[in-house]
Design a protein that fits this description.
By secondary structure, the protein is α+β, with helices and mostly antiparallel strands. Among the domains are: about 5-70; about 105-155, Double Stranded RNA Binding Domain (2-Layer Sandwich). It has four helices and four strands, in the order H-H-E-E-E-H-E-H. The chain has a four-stranded mixed beta sheet with strand order 3-2-1-4, with helices on one face. Strand 2 (about 115-120) and strand 3 form a beta hairpin. About 10% of the residues are buried.
């Protein structure tokens, strides 16, 4: 079955309806100006006329410019498509068990900024610490009771100092200009 709006006749009718709505908008806005209502004393009638004029202008311009193209299908990006809802049945006990695989190894090491970190063997960061002892205690606590997890220590990477941006406060600038 052919779409009703694909015919030439329907396109002309849609565009003519758009022109009629543009004329209605012009008439309503003219009527609004003829009322000479002060801005702070506007009642429901001027607001209704303004809303009618706005709606008629919006719909009329769309129909006049697009005609039958207004009903064309467009492809929506995958980002904006509706995703199916995840339905997770809740057991009768009320507890939901997560089926997340347990990490094989916890790695205690240093990151590029020199902070101590604890990571899973897959690379996911579990925690960032200021000392090696704190990171080791956290890893031991995570491992407690689970013998399938082993601990490892990595040397990490050296501190990243060279080429780093630093914010200079006004006092430093004033002191350096006074010295120079």
């Amino acid at each position: 079955m052919a779409a009703w709006h694909r015919s030439r006749r329907a396109d002309i009718v849609l565009r003519a309806t758009g022109l009629l709505l543009c004329w209605v908008s012009y008439a309503e806005v003219s009527r609004l100006f003829a009322l000479h209502v002060p801005p702070h004393q506007a009642g429901i009638l001027p607001y209704g006329i303004a809303a009618l004029g706005f709606m008629a202008a919006s719909a009329g311009s769309a129909l006049t410019l697009l005609g039958h193209l207004l009903f064309d299908e467009i492809e929506v990006s995958a980002r904006w498509r509706a995703r199916p809802a995840l339905s997770v049945p809740i057991p009768s006990g009320g507890h939901i068990e997560m089926n997340i695989p347990e990490p094989a190894m916890l790695v205690v090491g240093r990151d590029i900024d020199g902070d101590w970190t604890v990571r899973e063997s897959a690379g996911m960061l579990l925690g960032r610490f200021s000392s090696a002892q704190a990171a080791q205690r956290f890893a031991e606590a995570e491992r407690r009771g689970r013998t399938s997890i082993s601990l490892a220590t990595s040397a990490g990477s050296p501190r990243r100092i060279e080429g780093r941006l630093s914010l200079v406060c006004d006092r430093t600038l004033k002191g350096s200009t006074a010295l120079g």
